[in-house]
Amino acid sequence: MSRQILDVAKAVSCEMQVSDDVIFEAIEAALESAIRKRHFKDIDVKVRIDRKTGDYKTYRCWTVLDEKQPDFQEIFNADRHLTLLQAKEKDEALKVGDVIEELMASEDIGRIGVQTAKQVILQKVREAKRAQVANAYRDKVGQLIHGVVKRVAREGIALDLGDNAEVFIPRSEMIPGEMVHVNDRLRAYLSEIKTDSRGPQLMASRSREEVLKELLTIEVPEIGDGVIEIKALARDPGLRSKVSVKTNDGRIDPIGACVGMRGSRIQVISNELNGERIDIILWDDNPAQLVINAMTPAEVASIVMDEDSHTMDIAVEESQLSQAIGRNGQNVRLASQLTGWKLNVMSLQDAENKQQVETEKFQQLFMEKLDVDAEVALILVREGFTSIEEIAYIPKQELLNVAEFDDGIIEALRQRAKTALENEKNHPSPAEDLLNLAGMNRELAYTLAAAGIKTREELAEQSVDELIEVKGVTTERARELIMAARAHWFNEE
């Protein structure tokens, strides 16, 4: 038996190209499994093989547990465990967690035991091979790999990388609609090395943005050399992508370099990604210009930025509206992802109507709060003012740039703005959504605003006990108001 163990270890080590230690550990595990099966009990067994002679010894093991621990009754097994009291009877030095080993006869494991041992050895060897492959590819995580399709299944595909290395691409990481057949050659992005019960597994993706970025780095030497930089990328796998690029070398056209002569470079990448359409756009530090570039191929007529909400209203000609939005909103969605701004696309007519509504809203605000006529209010709106705070605290020089205003008008406007803000602070006004709330009257709305509850949302967040502290609000009235304010929570989809 000793000679046979040494022969098996040597033969399997050479054939499977794994170390002797791995084979010996596999044989030990196999013998332990076979011995446990022969005893028909859940005993703990440890086998140790002499690496030089092939002789092995078998030990029966018990782990010392503390009978006072909370889960003792659930985990205690008399065939595997000893209580601390029982352990102390054997050796006073033993403590909780120690393992007691007793030598037992190394019996013949029989024909069934041999089969069991064989399966365990093969499993251990497979795990060892996987670990070797994982270690070999650990430095390649985050890079493109290429291989031959070995297996196609519902849950994904397996790529053969050569040298017994295999990578798995889950169906969720595949390009939607891509037809893949056995023996096809594919490139993929090595995303991680996943560890499960079967050992380490190489995992890859073809749908992530990194795939496109790596392909561009390979196909466009200027990107690999750092002359051209990829600033942002947005991708709808297999359908369309947008990539913004920048260069500090004025002699180079970054878009032309990425596209290549007659589109040769970008076509190679598109073919690799199942015909995915790739738009290369020029990066610009000006957000508005970047959005204009990102909306290609549609031409933008005008842009209105709202930095507070980080949104932009984009106006295009009616004939280009569908092109600007794209199929299922794809063009504007990718442009939004690329730029980081929320984009609202509309026709020129809709933009003008919206602008007119906004102008009238701010004009009315200035007329009421500053006590000015429609002409002065319209000038303020035209110059880009949208709040009383801006007029009160903006540097005086900026107001002097308005041709229609002189020192006297400016001082009057600034003083009126500060007075309006002070009045607002002392006598806060309720928001429109609170004024229009079902069951609300104007007097009560202003009473709530004076108590610090100025919006429907602020009212919805109140409790009955908090609300009845407001003068004139009863318990029943408080319940009705809170439920009315919260009604939209339950009606939203």
Report what the structure shows:
It is built from 22 helices and 15 strands. With 493 residues, the chain is of the alpha/beta class. A hairpin with a 4-residue loop joins strand 13 (302-306) and strand 14 (311-316). The radius of gyration is 37 Å and the shape is flat.
Task: Please describe the structure with a list of short key phrases separated by commas or semicolons.
single chain, 493 residues, alpha/beta, five-stranded mixed β-barrel, four-stranded mixed sheet, 46% helix
Short overview:
With 493 residues, this protein is α/β, with parallel strands linked by helices. It has helices at 2-16, 20-39, 72-75, 84-90, 110-137, 209-219, 221-224, 254-259, 264-272, 287-294, 321-325, 330-339, 348-370, 374-382, 388-393, 396-400, 407-426, 432-435, 442-450, 456-460, 464-467, 475-491; strands spanning 44-49, 56-65, 81-83, 99-104, 144-153, 156-162, 165-170, 185-196, 199-205, 228-236, 240-247, 277-282, 302-306, 311-316, 342-347. It is built from 22 helices and 15 strands.
Blueprint (SSEs and pairs):
Blueprint: H1 2-16, H2 20-39, E1 44-49, E2 56-65, H3 72-75, E3 81-83, H4 84-90, E4 99-104, H5 110-137, E5 144-153, E6 156-162, E7 165-170, E8 185-196, E9 199-205, H6 209-219, H7 221-224, E10 228-236, E11 240-247, H8 254-259, H9 264-272, E12 277-282, H10 287-294, E13 302-306, E14 311-316, H11 321-325, H12 330-339, E15 342-347, H13 348-370, H14 374-382, H15 388-393, H16 396-400, H17 407-426, H18 432-435, H19 442-450, H20 456-460, H21 464-467, H22 475-491
Parallel strand pairs: 2-3, 7-9, 11-12, 14-15
Antiparallel strand pairs: 1-2, 2-4, 5-6, 5-8, 6-7, 8-9, 10-11, 13-14
Helix pairs in contact: 1-2, 2-5, 6-9, 10-12, 13-14
